[in-house]
Amino acid sequence: MQFSILTLFPEIIDAYASASIMGRARKNGVIDVQAINIRDFTTDPHKKVDDSPFGGGSGMVLACQPVESAFESLLPLQEPARVLITTPAGRKFDHPFALELSQCKQLVILCGHYEGFDERIMQLIPGIEEVSIGDFVLTGGELPALCMMDAITRLLPGAVQKFSSVEADSFYDGLLDYPHYTRPAEYKGLRAPDVLLSGNHAEIAKWRKAQALQKTKLARPDLLE
To answer: Is 24 exposed, middle or buried (0-12, 13-18, 19+ CB in 10 A)?
Structure first.
């Protein structure tokens, strides 16, 4: 899968995408990550990519020309492809959305910064979709892009050594994950549940299912609906 990230800070994308599971997936050819510097495409002699907003106000707005030119450098896209732009008004990113996007051959993500994008970019780039990772504001879109890339990469065949661990993750079957324990069996008077030490895999599966349901009911009852 090809991730193409349009950003003013490609070093942020490259650093994270070179480590841990994403780094291994990248090394093994499961994913390819392009961090495209929007600043490389501006026609401004001073490499300026933003300007003050019409109508006044604080902050700076990313201009149309460098963003559109950076996007056009990727054409033609590898179909099926999706083009996302990080904004607070976007569709909420969740597990079902990650599953959708994992079917793409290429995913383009435009990372906002400063006060955001010139609104006309929404009309200039065909099929662009707004996406948000939650109801809060960040300095830029790089962290949301990395969150989405990480979640999607885990769903790709070959990215995680044992896909069964992904299938047991929270949200994969609609529930939160069950509690986990490891050695030692007892630590500072706190003991791991005996059923997990029993070797009875049928009872362990039953316990885990019950724990996942209980945890979801208490923490996220909305998921049970």
So the answer is: middle
The predicted-structure confidence for 17-39, as pLDDT tens digits, reads as follows 999 999 999 999 999 999 999 99
User: pTM for this structure?
Assistant: 0.90
Q: Considering the domain 175-224 in this protein, what is its CATH number? A: 1.10.1270.20
Q: Tokens at residue 71, please? A: 């996007």
The residues annotated as belonging to the active site are 88, 115, 154, 169
- For residue 198, the tally of other CB atoms under 10 A from its CB is 11
Which DSSP letter does residue 93 get? P
Closest CA to 15 of 107, 149, 161: 149
> Is residue 50 within 8 Å of residue 63, measured between CB atoms?
yes
Report the SS3 class of residue 215. helix
Contact 67, 43 (CB under 8 A): no
Return the CATH architecture of domain 2-154.
Answer: 3-Layer(aba) Sandwich (3.40)
Distances (CA, A) of 221 to 96, 99, 188, 206: 18, 22, 32, 20
